[in-house]
Specification:
single chain, mainly alpha, 2 domains, two-stranded antiparallel ribbon, 3 helices, 7% strand
């Protein structure tokens, strides 16, 4: 194995470069929060599922839904995984409100003040 003037072999230098590149690649998502858009899309998808579950509840029971996300889970209209915003902590369930005249279901994210893009289109 051939050494340069400072005593490092080419393999040691390449290994050091690859180690630094690996550390940079692993740390990149932490610094730039590359998963933010994915979590926003997941939140919006969850809100769509909650809205669909509340509307199905109203259609099948012919009554205005006045409950919470927990009621939709209990009555098997919704799965637990769809009931919380992925940005927040455990227990941050979506808020459901229904206009009693038009039966329009509105879902809001519990973390909307921190993440203003968490809104159903």
């Amino acid at each position: 194995m051939r050494l340069n003037e400072k005593g490092f072999s080419i393999y040691k230098i390449l290994a050091l470069i690859f180690m630094l590149a690996l550390i940079f690649i692993l740390a990149l998502p932490q610094f730039f929060d590359l998963n933010q858009k994915e979590r926003t899309e997941m939140c919006i998808s969850n809100m769509k599922d909650v809205k669909a579950a509340a509307e199905q509840y109203q259609r099948e029971r012919n009554e205005v839904f006045t409950g919470t996300v927990d009621d939709l889970i209990r009555t098997k209209y919704l799965r637990i995984a769809e009931s919380e915003c992925p940005e927040g902590s455990v227990g941050d369930k979506y808020h459901i409100s229904v206009d009693e005249e038009t039966l329009e279901v509105t879902i809001t994210c519990p973390n909307h003040s921190e993440f203003p893009d968490h809104v159903l289109p």
